[in-house]
Automatic annotation (TrEMBL):
The keyword ATP-binding applies. One of its GO terms (biological process) is positive regulation of translational initiation. It comes from Pangasianodon hypophthalmus (Striped catfish). This is Protein kinase domain-containing protein. One of its GO terms (molecular function) is protein serine/threonine kinase activity. Residues 326-404 form the RRM domain. PROSITE patterns: PROTEIN_KINASE_ATP (PS00107), PROTEIN_KINASE_DOM (PS50011), RRM (PS50102). ATP binds at residue 65. Residues 1-21 are annotated as: Disordered.
Length: 424
């Protein structure tokens, strides 16, 4: 699938010249399948591609990944990622590829593009915005399960992701799950076509060895396996638990000598923050992913049956602020006195609906009169974009002299009528 044209002015530069991204002007419009999509923002950029948030008059928002020509003036990066994505579509924890197109800008420089599902906050952003004590057990469990589900599927299909890191795990507000992105280094197990895989800080020992041999012009015995993905996930989960970036730690000699002891120390340091049994299960799960010998490392399938996933957790209020969903929960608005007068209660319902509809299409609104959820206002929007805008504009406003607290709320729980009475 391709599109004949797009209005994307750039500064001059010959194809394959290796223009730096800051020398390339941001596109204004993409013409995608006969429809004009406006570029709203650049979401990210790398040496080979940039990612933009785009929207059109008739369609919901999406993401465009635009590839620059490689050093040889070719499309290898685009063709590689397109090939992998087309082969692994259909799993709920892997980003959806909507289509591919060619962008012709006014300077007649064609670029290859992927039209992708628009996702939200990355685990990298969550690590930056989280507390120094680490994230909640609910969030760690949610992320771990979603990524392991994706890896189970990916590995069954014979693929190694080969660049698992916090920046490549993104939250889907509408599906309420984490999804994997960026398959530019992925390869079929046993057919590794890229020597330098994974990112510093999340690179498995066997990948480090392979890189060192390649730099010396030597060949290793065999390529890396799916085990490298489990190593990366183990480091990610350890960072989420500890609230500490571990790049320097995993490069240290102490880590190489006895990584298990360092993991034990991190968990003992946080033992007062979390309940003991889930902590031990999480510790053992992470340690099973961090064996230096890849043959002893847990598989994704085996990791999913860890006792850690049998324990139910409720989200922390910080989780509900950080992870957007289509449902907004408003606190500090309704007094008990408002709930027992039917006329006043109905007036409040209508007032709240009218106010919330200023920010988007409201599908439903609920104010429970009894616990659980007594006095909380739950607003279900048509999509997470509307609820995000409402959360941004309502947070900190006053209602009857009180400051409004606005968090998101799990759509799945709301649909089941499961309302948290209190979320600490």
């Amino acid at each position: 699938m391709s599109s004949p044209n797009a209005n994307t002015p750039r500064l001059p530069g010959p194809p394959g010249s290796g223009e730096k991204e800051d020398q390339v002007m941001q596109p204004v419009l993409f013409e995608i399948f006969g429809e004009m999509w406006k570029v709203q923002a650049r979401l990210g950029q790398g040496g080979s591609a940039s990612v933009y948030r785009v929207s059109s008059a008739r369609s919901s928002s999406a993401a465009v990944k635009e590839f620059l020509l490689d050093a040889q003036g070719g499309d290898y990066g685009y063709l590689k990622e397109r090939s992998v994505l087309e082969d692994i579509q259909g799993h709920k924890n892997i980003v959806t590829l909507y289509g591919v197109f060619t962008n012709h800008n006014p300077l007649s420089i064609a670029t290859r593009c992927l039209l992708l599902e628009l996702l939200d906050v990355s685990v990298s952003e969550l690590l930056v915005r989280g507390s120094s004590q680490g994230h909640s057990m609910w969030l760690i469990q949610h992320c771990a399960r979603d990524v392991l589900e994706a890896l189970c599927f990916l590995h069954r299909e014979g693929y190694v992701h080969a660049d698992l890191k916090p920046r490549n795990i993104l939250w889907s507000p509408d599906d309420e799950c984490f999804k994997l992105i960026d398959f530019g280094l992925s390869f079929k197990e046993g057919h590794q076509d890229v020597k330098y895989i994974q990112t510093d800080g999340y690179r498995a020992p066997e990948a480090e060895l392979q890189n060192s041999l390649a730099q010396a012009g030597l060949e290793g015995d065999s390529g890396c396996t799916t085990a490298v993905d489990l190593w990366s996930l183990g480091i990610i989960l350890l960072e989420m638990f500890s609230g500490i970036k571990l790049k320097e730690t995993v490069k240290s000699q102490e880590w190489k000598d006895n990584s298990a002891a360092i993991v034990d120390h991190i968990f003992s340091s946080n033992s007062l923050v979390y309940p003991a049994i889930p902590v031990y299960h999480l510790r053992d799960l992470i340690k099973s992913m961090l064996h230096h010998n890849p043959n002893r490392r847990s598989t994704a399938e085996a990791a999913l049956i860890s006792p850690f996933f049998s324990i139910p957790f409720a989200p922390h209020i910080d989780d509900l602020v950080l992870l957007p969903t289509p449902v907004l929960r408003l606190l500090n608005i309704i007094d008990d006195s408002h709930l027992h007068n039917d006329d006043e209660y109905e007036d409040i319902i209508e007032d709240m609906r009218e106010e919330c509809q200023k920010y988007g299409s409201v599908l439903s609104l609920l104010i429970p009169k009894e616990n659980p959820g007594k006095g909380q206002v739950f607003v279900e929007y048509a999509n997470a974009g509307d609820s995000k805008e409402a959360q941004r504009l309502l947070t900190g406003r006053t209602f009857d002299g009180k400051f409004v607290v606005a968090t998101f709320y799990p759509l799945s729980a709301y649909k089941r009528g499961y309302l948290y009475q209190t979320v600490q």
